[in-house]
Design a protein that fits this description.
Blueprint (H helix, E strand, L loop, with lengths): L1 H24 L4 E2 L12 E3 L5 E3 H4 L4 E6 L7 H14 L9 E6 L6 H13 L10 E4 L3 H11 L1 E2 L1 E3 L2 E3 L4 E4 L5 E5 L2 E3 L3 E3 L2 H12 L8 H7 E4 L4 E4 L1 H22 L10
Parallel strand pairs: 4-5, 5-6
Antiparallel strand pairs: 1-7, 2-3, 4-10, 8-9, 10-11, 12-13, 14-15
Helix pairs in contact: 1-8
Length: 266
């Protein structure tokens, strides 16, 4: 009997592995963390002045990478304004401790769009930040997809807008992905980045330290609402996982439950 139960448990476990594994396979819009992987530094873009630049020329120190699009009517502007705020609050200095690169996910945008956004966000800085410390790039779809796929950043175009997640990706000077920082979002206060989290992410990337986040857990527990452009709790998935875990624990308990000794009496 115990042998049969063990076989059933094994079959049960093997059957639920694909259920958990398919989360990454079906990412349509969101983040699939590629910690420890490298972005393609041979990718070529245009800077805000219209000059061709290779990422290897820009990622020479700790770098914060953000995928946005400059005509975004949604989360991109609040996201970058929050980055400006945390840059102002942090005692780390852009251009010395780290650099920032924004890459437009819209291949139709041109350097003039990037130049306008650069003026906007530099005006929001209280510090004297070098002009080369925060880059705004545009490029072809081929080059954009090459970098976004390597970073595990997935987005979708719908007409003239994009569905995407707001995230900052921290790279070391070799282009290795060390950390993903997903700002907290509130309907009332917008995005929020804790200066301590920001500082630690920069320092860890400077050391080349790869730091996992809870993004994979959030990815399982939340589903992306394409209409509201935000994540919502997936109660069906959470309860289903809870039931699976309880059943598995129950089966394990049955297998390893101590047998009661039967005392024979004459």
């Amino acid at each position: 009997m115990q042998g049969l139960i063990k076989i059933l448990v094994l079959l049960f476990v093997l059957s639920i592995i694909p259920v958990f594994g398919e989360i990454d396979d079906k990412i349509d819009v969101g983040i699939d963390e590629q910690l420890g992987a490298y972005i393609p530094l041979n990718a070529i873009f245009k800077d805000a002045n219209g000059n061709d630049v290779v990422l290897s020329e820009l990622v020479t120190e700790t770098t914060i990478l953000a995928f946005v699009y400059y005509e975004c009517p949604g989360i991109c502007n609040p996201l970058l304004f929050e980055l400006s705020e945390v840059i102002n609050k942090s005692d780390l200095e852009p251009g010395y401790d780290y650099n920032v690169i924004c890459i437009s996910m819209d291949e139709l945008e041109i350097p003039e769009n990037a130049a306008d956004k650069k003026l906007t966000f530099y005006a929001a800085l209280d510090k004297d930040v070098p002009k080369e410390a925060w880059r705004f790039l545009t490029g072809s779809r081929e080059e954009i997809i090459k970098v976004t796929n390597a970073a595990g950043f997935y987005f979708k175009r719908i007409d003239d807008q994009f569905l995407h997640t707001g995230v900052f990706i921290f790279l070391d000077k070799e282009g290795k992905i060390c950390r993903y920082l997903i700002p907290n979002y509130s309907d009332k206060s917008g995005f929020g980045i804790l200066p301590f989290d920001f500082k630690m992410a920069v320092l860890e990337a400077a050391d080349g330290k790869v730091t996992p986040t809870i993004a994979r857990v959030l990815q399982f527990c939340f589903s992306y609402d394409t209409e509201g452009q935000k994540y919502t709790l997936n109660f069906t998935r959470i309860f289903g996982a809870g039931i699976i875990i309880l059943v598995l624990l129950f089966l394990i308990f049955i297998i390893f439950k101590p047998k009661k000794e039967i005392i024979k009496t004459r």
